[in-house]
Amino acid sequence: MKTICWLMLAMSAILWEQCATVKSKWDKHRAEYEKYDRPIEYASLENSLPPLAALPPLPAFPEMPDLSKLIPSFLKKENKNLPLAKKEPEVAHAGKKKIKKSPERKAKSNPIYRLRTRFTPKDDHNIHKASRFSYPVGFPDAKGYYVAQGFAVPNKNYGNMLHLGEDWNAVTGGNSDLGDPVYAVANGRVLSAKEEGHGWGKVIRLVHTLPDGNEVESIYAHLDRIDVRPGDLVRRGLVIGTIGNAGGLYLAHLHFEIRDYHGGELGGGYASELGLCLHPGEFIARHK
């Protein structure tokens, strides 16, 4: 670095000396021309101008020294040891392709679905115990909803058979809750998710493993849309579907049940005995 600095100083001194020489010569010749710097009368124009032969010749501009000899060899471009910057290869940018979003990706873009989370396949060996439960609507505490038909209530339209779950409605009534999100009440696995028919409509069944090792099943019926598939592992608060009306059979509401898991058939929503069905509201209140 010191060598380079000294070389640059030497080059500057040489240039300064050359410039000073040229300036002195120009000053000398300028003094010669100033003798003739006076107002010119057109009548005596020919007499006022000096003959060309009397004018001194203009000095030639001095030749610049070959400064390349002063540049060290390691700074020359042709030196092979000098690392040169590599030019980045040009990448052809293809036109933007319109990608059709899956229902799950569409749901994630909506603020109401921000709680959508899934387990990864590597978590399958440990199905993340269902240590906490919340309500299936108005996550997490059912705000804005109420139980329109309670658990174990006899229904005249079904021969006074007992209602095996709870029917959840929005406080705004009617079909105002059609399309509202339905949430997984706890961590679990999707047992089935399909159209069941026979008044059920679209139904999702989840199985949950409790901290003590026992398993319970949660059932979400009369759905308008299903957002999960059998075998999916879900977390508490995941939007798994939306409230429906079983294809127009009822006003929009969610039929929700909790049963001791046995892996059997879905059965009906009413029965003469409660069997394996548990009181959903009381169970969730005990496991919040």
How is this fold's topology laid out?
Elements lengths: L1 H33 L10 H4 L54 H6 L29 H5 L2 E5 L4 E2 L5 E3 L2 E5 L10 E3 L4 E8 L6 E8 L5 E12 L6 E2 L4 E5 L10 E7 L9 E2 L5 E2 L1 H7 L2
Task: Provide a quick synopsis of the model.
This protein is of the alpha+beta class and 288 residues long.
Mean pLDDT over the residues = 78
Instruction: Using the alpha-carbon principal axes, give the shape.
Output: rod-shaped
Secondary-structure arrangement, i.e. CATH architecture of the largest domain: Distorted Sandwich
What would you give as the CATH superfamily of the largest domain? Glucose Permease (Domain IIA)
Count of helical stretches = 5
Task: Give keywords.
2 domains, alpha+beta, Glucose Permease (Domain IIA), 19% helix, 5 helices, three-stranded antiparallel sheet
